[in-house]
């Protein structure tokens, strides 16, 4: 009999499985499904990035092991982009590390900063890898509820002192998946002060930094004075440059924290394919122009979807960022039941909030990853419900 390690056994069950199964059944029955469940851009990566990869891959030097922390040219470009985008100066040799997608960084950070039995403070609902990465490091995720009455920000004053004493790492993520909430600089100030006062490493996941609407531009936590003392920030080209399959991202921040992550990575992976790093340089160079184009598209989709939700009796403010709409389910429903209802009656896939943690109950998440035509079709179906 195969025996799994306790850490594998302690990973919570995959709560989306039931909805997935129901979706597959509907497809078998020939239902025209509109899948607003997955957070994966539907439009292709930019042409110039593809051309850049084709060129880079013809150079045999890109075929060898890349450097562990990322090529100097890629990290140099990250430093330039960061300066232009956030006004923050970074030392590309010590304060930047290349990631094989930001998920890889999120999953490895607890191995560097959480001792067995220690807590990592994790938002809930959240991208599941914060808590799963903590469990894989034999740590204990401590849930920080993200509640609508607090603008989906954690209330740091509610974290017990005994927990804080036994904590060395905290995850935050704004613009936020799944809630679409954004953070202003005063929240980052509070988080940094909390980190410094309690000697806690702050890992800010900024994977959605470039997806903002109605003129909103997300800040970096590193813009705040003192952030470089205790913060690492994760970035990704996945969502912002339609490059989820390419697996490229980076982490920036305090040199010792970056070095800690680097030590884990050096021992478990061998860096990102150099040709992809070369192509990602071109993605970053034109990131402003590309994001402006994509954000117009997502904004139009968001506005179309909100019309449909209103028809369902769900009247909610427009999210300013990410490509998610975190919609409260009508009274008397739970998130799995409501997702099933949408699938059964309208052929629409939404992700039940409970899949992002227990504080996600009462919500479903819609991704704006279908054309405005398909979203309008979903809206028509919603109106008929
Ligand atoms: C909040 C958040 N962080 C990180 C990631 C990982 O992205 P990637 O590994 O593709 O960079 C995701 C992906 O869905 C996410 O939602």
TrEMBL record:
GO terms for molecular function: L,L-diaminopimelate aminotransferase activity; pyridoxal phosphate binding. Its EC number is 2.6.1.-. Residues 32-381 form the Aminotransferase class I/classII large domain. It holds the Pfam family Aminotran_1_2. Keywords: Aminotransferase, Transferase. It is an enzyme of class 2 (transferase). It comes from the Archaea. GO terms for biological process: lysine biosynthetic process via diaminopimelate. Its cofactor is pyridoxal 5'-phosphate. NCBIfam families: DapC_direct, PRK09276.1. Belongs to the class-I pyridoxal-phosphate-dependent aminotransferase family. This is Aminotransferase. The lineage of its organism: Archaea, Methanobacteriati, Methanobacteriota, Stenosarchaea group, Methanomicrobia.
